[in-house]
């Protein structure tokens, strides 16, 4: 039997949830039928508090939240009762009117109030407390409110979510229709929450010709940005045209012409190399050119005249360490002050930190001003711990100073240089092109730079493959540390990491340090992982020292499912715990969560892990090692459950125990450098749960997706025009 739809009417009381990436919302209304409070869920224009709504839908029973009205559609009704009008006006929807003024207005105009406000607003002057200034404020706000409503309706009629109406009216006022019809792609850079896809949907709905050059140019820029999100700095023109034509469903020839126009008008830039034309955004092109030139300048810096007898210094230093420095380690220290830029690379336990400590000592003895930094907060913290010196993220070191258009500006830049003679950057595998550019800009011509990292780790999240490209170019001196020193705790992990890196399977189950628990079915594996996680946490009494990693979000052993299972097992609902539900998860007091993006205002960064210690309605409080952070409303979308995280998100972090899902359905992601990165996150214990064949596939698969950049070629001073 088909469910019949019902109609409920009532005034909106409160919006409980608003999805950031769709127009799905959950709100409460007070029913006109019996004055009860109802929870409504559905997709549509967000109602304002006090809005009188007619909602179509059906009653459903939610297993956790009880009876709810699942709406298929709703529309706004003009408040018709005096009480409704008063509630609407007093809700703050109209600037200048609070509850008591709303009461006085409705007391005078009664059910005519809305008509008076719309057609004869000057009559409001008769109300005590409303003068000319206030009247202007009220009418402006009422007009805008009406405009938003009309706009929402118009958008909905064009098949577009009405929730954009407020932002559009606020930004463009009376010009909103002009923008929608004539220059819709402006919205991408001007309206928060509107990306290319939405702008394009709006543009087409409001009559844009699908083959118009404006649309094609916007599509090209979008595709280029999208590719840089995937790590590319530039992209071959043919590939860009092909992909753009595909998403726009436009003719490649027209897209090609539009690309030509965008290049002529300098909206996009190009570089020709080896018979291929590569397309860049102007910013990316500037960053790559500058970075290459600056590195070449640094490589040609004169060696520093040092007072210290370096060989003697190293002999004394190793005596104090009670071990003999390997030749490569000595070489790294010796070269550190000879060249303007040096790369020190090596796998885990090969003595990188020891070399950095030695270089710092030498440089301090020479009276050099040293600055230590790393691409992420966690890496900077570890650098500070191992060197017992101050270390910052590159971002913090340069001090953010707002934006110029889409480009981040820093206090330290080419006009204000960092007070340093030597900058040491750790974990450079995570350094992207943009950050490298900003860092190099802030270095004085006399400043030297040492890049330390493990070139075999996954590349940076941001665009570029800076470390990889620099090493490949052969233009910069590189010292590759290859002797494994760490023997005691974590020794097995280190040797296995090196085996993996050399394409050989790790030695498993010879001790407790590196185990493989074989499973047949992935569902069974997910259960095992949640059980092992619980046992390991119990053993260490520290949720942060045990981390589950998985290559993907989807599938039975993916991050999403694992989080659900582990939450179910280790943090069950109870009367003392409060909860918050967003589209995807239930957050509960006690949950382990992760920040998904950098938030400089709150001082929390992509990959930071904390624990929820309180939830009040739509506010979640998270305790991070450094500080407590409060997330409210939409901000909650910045966090996710973190019992399990992806290997990519674990980059730069270290845990006592790593539990990793290694199963066949993740085959597409099982690559050697991903497996290697996962294993090297563990200090004491690795527990792999999965299938031997998946493990072997991961070790053998070196088919990493390469990134389009010309940094290597520029560093080799090859012909690029
Ligand atoms: N030449 C050496 N002889 C003996 N032991 C060494 C030597 N160099 C470093 N070690 C020791 O080996 C261990 C690993 O060294 P270190 O921490 O410097 O390596 P790493 O490359 O920074 O490791 P990771 O990347 O895993 O942090 C340390 O205990 C260190 O004291």
Automatic annotation (TrEMBL):
A single Gene Ontology MF term assigned here is: DNA binding
CDD domains xrefs: DEXSc_RecD-like, SF1_C_RecD
**Keywords of the record:** ATP-binding, DNA-binding, Helicase, Hydrolase, Isomerase, Nucleotide-binding
Q: Which Gene Ontology terms of cellular component type are present?
A: exodeoxyribonuclease V complex
Kindly list the positions annotated as binding ATP. 349-353
Q: Which reaction does it catalyse?
A: ATP + H2O = ADP + phosphate + H(+)
Task: Respond yes or no to whether keyword Ribosomal protein is given for this record.
Answer: no
**One matching Pfam family:** HHH_RecD2
Single Gene Ontology BP term?
A: DNA recombination
* AAA+ ATPase domain span: 338-489
Give the Enzyme Commission number. 5.6.2.3
Tell me the enzyme class: isomerase
Q: Which InterPro entries match?
A: AAA+_ATPase, Coronavir_polyprotein_1ab, P-loop_NTPase, RecD2, RecD2-like_HHH, RecD2_N_OB, RecD2_SH13, RuvA_2-like
**Keyword Nucleotide-binding found:** yes
SMART domains named among the record's database cross-references: AAA (SM00382)
**Similarity field:** Belongs to the RecD family. RecD2 subfamily.
The task this protein performs is described as: DNA-dependent ATPase and ATP-dependent 5'-3' DNA helicase. Has no activity on blunt DNA or DNA with 3'-overhangs, requires at least 10 bases of 5'-ssDNA for helicase activity.
PANTHER family listed in its UniProt record: DNA HELICASE B, DNA2/NAM7 HELICASE FAMILY MEMBER
Show the HAMAP family listed in the entry: RecD2
Protein name as catalogued: ATP-dependent RecD2 DNA helicase
